[in-house]
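[[Local backbone shapes]]
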Amino acid sequence: MPQSAWTDKRERQYDHIKANLKERGRSEGTAERIAAATVNQTRTAKGETKEAKPPSERARAKRDMAAAGRKGAMARKSR
């Protein structure tokens, strides 16, 4: 989805994710790609995309995001 469709909130989310990834040593291109994918996944899970997704697909996206959050938290704790 083009970035022009993002709200100000999603632009801030993109900038925040990109900055954090760059701080952790990711390249500019990789940080941009991951940040854009994350924002788009969030938009889909929240039902903000132009094409409405069926509720079952939105629920699956929310579960995937929750699982990724738990996995990330576990990785941070093990360091």
Remarks:
- Residues 22 and 28 are 7 Å apart (CA to CA).
- The chain is about 75% helix and 0% strand.
